Amino acid sequence: MMKRILSIIVVLIISNSLFAQENSQRWSEKKATKWSKEHGWIVGANFVPSTAQNQIEMWQASTFDPVTINRELGYAEKIGMNSMRVFLHYLVWQENPESYYSRIDHFLNIARIHKIKIMFVLFDDVWNPYPKLGDQGTPFPRRHNAGWVQCPGYEILTNEARHEELKPYVQGIIKRFANDERVLIWDLYNEPENNNFHSYNDDGKQPYSLKLLKKAFSWAREVNPSQPITSAVWCCEWDNQDKLSEFNEFMLNNSDIITFHNYDAIEKFTKKAEPLERYNRPIMCTEYMARTNKSTFGDHLPYMHKNNIGAYNWGLVSGKSQTIFPWDSWQKEYPDEP
User: Fold this and answer.
1) pLDDT tens for residues 81-99?
2) N or C: which end of the chain has fewer CB within 10 A?
């Protein structure tokens, strides 16, 4: 009798171990497809309230603005959007994790009122490489994303010994909301490898970004959230499988759902989107819409709707982020919106 009981216990332990291992790995194509069918076509924007110029100003206690957030997510609801892509920041978490969780929860409650689910972004390689808490100052007038900051920032990113400081941030936030229906997707790293040559030109960080990207996926898999995890390909030749960069190969082969950025006119856009079908997974464009580059709602939304490609344009309401101005506003002045 005792041998039989021990055998049953051993079988249960092995089964549970295999189950945990399976669920801590990349989603199967079947699971990702099922998730997509449950949620339907996803359409929204990259959101920061008009009163914030960056992630820190959006989230820190002194500048968190639920009144504006509620009003602007109301605009999104009225025009038919059902999701927002929203950037978080390590420094705000580091200052007071529980307080940060509370504000995130408040934000998610507002989003739920407007029937909007959230894709959260945890790291970001774009724009100012030296983030700081406190007063964010005044952005340079009429300059695209003049006040946006990277996460975690150059000093931590390029000091590999400090990467472990970031693990509690990733796992703490994901664990807190791992089974929360208000959260749609975890986007672990925005545009890793971006050297910001149009603005700050922080070249040389790419090897560190690749290491942090891989760690972020590993940390997230350990938590095993109910939502899919991803990171978007955004540059280079992902449409040619023989020329994939190490970044693109890793992101495409480790994301539960396939995400990409493209600001080209529709003809080039389709040539970048169609090759991603070979992965047999849901596809989302998590950044598009640059009018001076002929990336527009009128051309792109019908195509993405027809092909069930999730669509997140950059920006919702004109405000302190100043992204109504083009990228080259870093090189030349725009007296008015082009």
Assistant:
1) 999 999 999 999 999 999 9
2) N
